Amino acid sequence: MTTTTTALNTNMNRLLALVSIWLSAATTTVQGELVISEVAPRGSSNACDGDDWVELWNNGDEAILMTGWMIADDRGWTTPDSERFEFPDGFEIGADEYLLMCTGGDTMNLVTPMNANFTSFVGPTFGIGAEDSLNLVRPDGSFTVLGPFPEPQSGSIKDITFALDPSTGEYNFTSTPTPGEPNIITRVPTEAELIEEQKVQLAAQNDAGIEFFNFNRQGLPVEDGFDAIVELKITMANSDFDLLMSNPQHQTYFDFQSASVVTEDGVELLVLDDPGRIRTRGDEATFMASCLGSPLPFRLDFDDVNKTQTLFGVQQIYLRHPLFDASYMREWAYPRMLARFGMPHARTRMVHFYINEKLIGFYTLMEIPEQEYVFARNFPNYNPKNFALFQIDPLTEGCGQYSQAELQSGRDRVDDSSTPPYSFERGTHVRPIQELGADMFKECQAAFADYKANTLMEDVVLAYVRHDEVCSDTFLDEGLVDQELGSDNWDNEIKNFIRDFMSFQPCDPDCTNSDLAKQVDIQNFLKMFAFYAVTLTIDSPLSEVNNYHLAQEESKEEKWKLVAYDFSKPGSPSCNTKVCEERLIHWSLVRPTCLSLEENVLVGPLLLNVTASTEYLGYVREFLDTVFANATFLEQIQSHASEIQDAVESSFGGSAGSFANELSPDATSWDAGGFPLLPTMKARAEDVEKQLAAIDDGSIARGPHQGKENEPWESCGDWQLSEPDTSACEGGCKYDGCNMPGWTVECFCEEATGVCYRGDEDLSCDGIVDGERYTGMEDGTFCKLAGGVTVKASACLEPGAVAVSNDGGDSPSSSGSSRWSTAAGAWPVAELLFVCVLVLSRSSW
């Protein structure tokens, strides 16, 4: 028997340690008493939001008054740190009644005739671990101990509980949790059986969305696929709707009551009656949409209340409004490309979105990558008990490269008790966003640039200082690198990856100091590089820390994989030069990064290796032939363009002039403005074919392993050039003291004088003579024309010059001190807080 009765005394804790009962021998009396009937030490999907729970059963003929009863975990109920739970006076458990108690301090809602005065109370605050035990204590001091609860020998994934079998009086594991109901004892499958069963369930969940997305596992349309556009509608309280729309910067959740999917002809395809929740989503996306008066980006969770409720198998979605892609099709087409290429992807489709019958906008609906059925589809051989998916925030870029001025600002604020919450965290502390209007795109960009430089990044540096200037601790503790999915034993692995490949430390020549190849799935990385390079998706790891997740299938291998998402920005905004966009179609395959391969610690170590580079070029050829230039696929995209034409041209950001290029695509119109998708694809396919031919016959002039190298400072490699971009300035101005993070417009050369400048895009300089100033301009700055953009500029130090710090001491020119000495005099730049790259590169916020 597992029941021990004794008087409460000073030796109680010692006695408790002796009476813990091992599962193999657990039994109890089941006649006329209150018993622990079932325990879920790992939670279950059908109760308590997946948290731990314990169930009590009165198996007698009369109600039991619970005054004086307690329940506690293995620390007992007399120790100082005990989290014991005492039942409220007067509470009763009726005859043959079950009481379900969620742990973790959840509120219990109980409305029964005998407990009319106890509509709710807070349940136990303790959790139930595998090595814990439970103590059910009676008013007279006698007690029952049950536990510990190790995993069954066959292993468990979820929905395995430890339950009393009334027919035998013994406790056993069961694979049929029955919270609040009579127990059902069923055989626990083996670990292999459980894994297979879970994978079958996840596959079925995925397949429930095939017709909805019109998108099978190979990225192909299906016979019964839904129309190109459907209507997604939700209903919510008008007061919540007003708060959601009037305070988008908070990105806080509000409940919605119901959701439905309807055809444009009004045919109802799906109705979800249980509540869900909605919030705005993304720093830059929300900021720009609010500033422009454009439809806001959203996240919707359909499974917030009912864990089994899905939208055609999808638990959570993003609604993305393509501010930067006039074609409205990159987010639709690129995931289909990845699927056809056998790569991880998140499915998408187009919807008109309504709240309370009000049309909000025309959106790309995307399944959120952080759902286990999506992971199982992308990595079918994954281990459900040991895997991980990390989301990488773009604010992690440049960690360890902060200037001394930035670091000092953080140190000055270290004791500021008002922060956190940090500005990069969601919440009501985030400042309002001023709406400037749809025709104020540049002004909104400038406003976000200021917000990022003077608010977001300042708080990132503050957090960095508070974490002893350790990137990995900063990112993990503050959620800038966030594990969205998987088991919880990956901290050391991701910390090592952050230390080695996300903290600023360029490779040695040829990246001989990097062991990236040992840490990543080389095939996955090379195939993803091929996709990025061919599609000209430069706003990606090719240029910076942006728009990807890191995945792990199995800890024994420790091979990280890339998962790409967010393809809303065409062109090369992150490379930040007008000339790059003018010759974008000729982007080099052998050096697809913005600067040298050594500057990119996620790309260089692989593409500087002859064997890996050859394999990568093979994937480029495969992707070009089977996907990117596939005639059937191009016809599918063009057909889709016709289907969404009216919706695009009536939406914010769409125009008949630009979209016409999608309907009758001509490769020569790729640079007509906005990079129309189909013309750009056709022109790029022709160019990639020529590049591959030149590589094969040895006629390509430059690049790794092809003879003359690109200069490290060339910001966009045109494969057709036989010589580097000429410049009257040393190193094209890409030297320490000039090529530093913090410029909206990167360092640039005035070829006539050979002087390097750096600056910030400044609309107030419009109309000002080159080199002149406007009233109120900061000391040491002046207006300058750079690549067709007017900027507030400051001359750079000459290479090797010494900067003069504010305290009169000397510091190296790369130290980030706030006052620079030049031949023209001292240029104070303490007031100039610039962003690292063009705002257009931050598409995932």
Would you spell out the secondary-structure blueprint of this structure?
Blueprint: E1 3-4, H1 12-19, E2 34-40, E3 53-58, E4 64-65, E5 70-72, E6 85-86, E7 92-93, E8 98-102, E9 107-109, E10 120-122, E11 134-137, E12 143-146, E13 161-165, E14 170-174, H2 191-207, H3 210-213, E15 229-235, H4 238-246, E16 254-256, E17 258-263, E18 268-272, E19 276-280, H5 283-292, E20 298-301, E21 316-320, H6 330-340, E22 348-355, E23 358-367, H7 372-378, E24 388-392, H8 404-412, H9 441-466, H10 471-477, E25 481-486, H11 491-501, H12 516-519, H13 522-535, E26 548-552, E27 561-564, H14 578-582, H15 604-607, H16 610-628, H17 631-649, H18 656-663, H19 677-697, E28 745-750, E29 755-761, E30 782-786, E31 789-795, E32 803-804, E33 810-811, E34 819-822, E35 825-828
Parallel strand pairs: 15-22
Antiparallel strand pairs: 1-12, 2-3, 2-13, 3-8, 4-7, 5-6, 5-11, 9-10, 11-12, 13-14, 15-17, 16-19, 17-18, 19-20, 20-21, 21-23, 22-23, 24-25, 24-26, 26-27, 28-29, 29-31, 30-31, 32-33, 34-35
Helix pairs in contact: 2-7, 5-9, 8-9, 9-10, 10-11, 13-16, 16-19, 17-18
